[in-house]
Design a protein that fits this description.
By secondary structure, the protein is α+β, with helices and mostly antiparallel strands. Helix content is 42%, strand content 34%.
Length: 204
């Protein structure tokens, strides 16, 4: 009778150990599967989120050089019309993150800065120059530099950057939906992200 009891206890212990191993392996497989799913989702949305706008600029360029004092000058001038396509976006392929399978946490480490790209089309009108003060390459470079600076100011004053942020927020909210649906936690800047705090993703 004693041997039968000991045998039964040993058998129960073996069943318990076997089930524990099976459950542990199953849980580990699920964690690895979830981790791969999260990383694949991040990879899928690692695209450039872009807001596009069009700007026009009319720029008057003038340069004068004194020849023999202020009474005699050599002038040159140009009227430049610029039509520019401007895009503002975030390259999410540069986003850095860490997946902690054990703690079930997705850590967003860094979000890239917005990228502003300006593609201007220059048309020159009324280009006149004195023989002693001709147009040179540096004049055209100065014109392009000044126009680019002016366009950047217009972009900053427009709604392009805020629209790009909204597009970014829409993409990043997918991280929260995905992690929350699997019982994971999403963290950014050492803060746990909740549904009502998704805007913490975006830098000012």
């Amino acid at each position: 009778m004693k041997r039968v009891l000991i045998g039964a206890l040993v058998a129960l212990a073996m069943v318990f150990v076997f089930r524990s191993c099976v459950d542990s392996n199953k849980e580990k497989a699920i964690l690895e599967e979830n981790s791969m799913l999260i990383q694949e989702q991040i990879k899928n949305i690692s695209k450039l989120v872009v807001t596009e706008g069009h700007f026009a600029e009319v720029y008057n360029y003038k340069d004068s050089q004194e020849l023999f004092g202020p009474l005699i000058t050599a002038d040159k001038k140009a009227l430049v019309v610029v039509n520019a396509e401007v895009t503002v976006g975030y390259d999410l392929s540069k986003l850095t993150f860490k997946v902690d399978e054990k703690a079930k946490v997705l850590y967003i480490k860094e979000i890239p800065e917005p990228e502003i790209k300006i593609n201007p089309d220059f048309e020159y009108y009324d280009v006149t120059a004195d023989y002693l003060n001709p147009f040179k390459a540096e004049d055209y470079n100065t014109i392009k530099k000044n126009i680019r600076a002016s366009l950047l100011k217009k972009v900053e004053a427009s709604s392009l950057k805020s629209n790009a942020k909204n597009r970014l927020l829409s993409e990043l909210s997918k991280f929260y939906v995905l992690t929350n649906s699997m019982g994971w936690t999403l963290e950014y800047n050492e803060h746990t992200i909740q549904e009502n705090s998704l805007e913490q993703f975006i830098k000012d």
